[in-house]
Amino acid sequence: MVGSTKGHLMAVFSPGFRGRRRSTNPGLPPGQYEEHGFPVLSAGPTQRVRQDDWRFTLTTETGEQRSWSWQDLMDLGPETIDTDIHCVTSWSKFGTRWRGVSVDKLLDGVASDAGFVMAGSYGGYTTNLPKADVVGARAWIAFEFDGQPLHPEHGGPARLLVPHLYFWKSAKWVNSLTLMEHDRAGFWESLGYHAHGDPWREERYS
Amino acid sequence: MPATLVGDHGETATARTLRLSAPDLGPALAGQHIDVRLTAPDGYTAQRSYSLSSAAGADPIEVTVERFADGEVSPYLVDDLEIGDAIEVRGPVGGWLVWRPEPDSRPVQLIAGGSGVAPLMAMLRTRAATGSRVPFRLLYGVTDPDRVYYAEELADLVERGGVPVAVRYSRRVPEGSTATPGRIGRADLGALILPPEADPSVFVCGPTGFVEAVADALVALGHPEHRIRTERFGPTG
Lengths: 206, 237
Known about the structure:
The structure holds two protein chains of two kinds. By secondary structure, chain A is mainly beta. Chain A has one domain (about 55-200): Alpha-Beta Complex (Sulfite Oxidase, Chain A, domain 2), CATH 3.90.420. Helix content of chain A is about 5%, strand content about 30%. Chain A has helices at about 70-75, 105; strands spanning about 35, 55-60, 65-70, 80-85, 90-100, 115-120, 125-130, 140-145, 150, 160, 175-180. In chain A, the strands form two sheets. In chain A, strands 1, 4, 5, 8, 9 and 10 form a six-stranded mixed β-sheet that branches. A five-stranded mixed β-sheet of chain A has the order 3-2-11-6-7. Chain B is an alpha/beta fold. Chain B is globular and about 55 Å long. The two termini of chain B are about 20 Å apart. Chain B has helices at about 75-80, 115-130, 150-160, 185-190, 210-220, and strands at about 1-10, 15-20, 35-40, 45-50, 60-65, 85-95, 110-115, 135-140, 165-170, 200-205, 230-235.
């Protein structure tokens, strides 16, 4: 069922189909279309977490833990992120602006040889990522969207933001990162979605 | 993999049910979706996900496509695709908003908003096809009587299938009805769905605003979060 790399596909042409919303933006990955709204997708009820109650915990593969309060997170030095986002349900949104704290800052000084991380959320959602995809200024704990505090529907008070992967990897209501020596499947990944999720390689399903 | 249109019918003035033969597609679970990909003669492609409305394992499969006026894929599937034409599909995918007909399954409460009834219909059809006795209920929110999908089959389910179905109209009620139009609120949920004491699995599918409101109300009524499974969508053409 992979079949998403071009070489595997038997093209079925649809006579008369031209496509109406074709975008000439080179930032649009294959099979995606440009969305101007901001659709909401989640698997259960929206979590409502107060900033005062919010805690974020990092656990290494040896069980060492670090933890941050909301104020601790702010003290790490947030930055502005301008990026495109891509959802596996085939919409992409260009030019979104976020504020967040780089995951590099959470991992600063942490001794770890782990190759993978599991992000966990209030409500029990999980998603797995290669550690290489959350370091090097490519992943953030984001708490502002478009100049406003991140709405709970969109994962507020804070969500993981990993915009170079399909957006299910950007866990809403994130509250933990666990470093892992071996990869394990998160929520959608154990339900048939891809372990990595690169939109440019159309890694939608496993 | 290719899928061939082998049958169709108009579900409403804006929605068409497609019956597709896709021999290479594995058997689906009730609630899963397929991806449909259209390729223009110049190689341009567009892809959308559609929930299967046919029973688990059905062959051919069925999807109901709502035409969005400014959509890209849905107008083609509703207006242009002809019997015998092939489209490209992938899947079936999704394993979360899924119901499996096990004998000891807990009761099931289905809550649909608009075209979100499609994957829940797959569950109702699976229950019927397998002769399952698991108690089911459906609460279906829709703007007006002309927008109801699967109307006759739902009526039959009430009459002969032992499934209570409540339809709530948000803008216009059927002629002769004394009901007041309105969105599904906490009072409706309290009165019309299986209570938390019955410990049902609750499947909610519909537009974002609908699902947000219903899921919040379910939690307020005492349904545990881990029993609530949701799928939200916007008009993605």
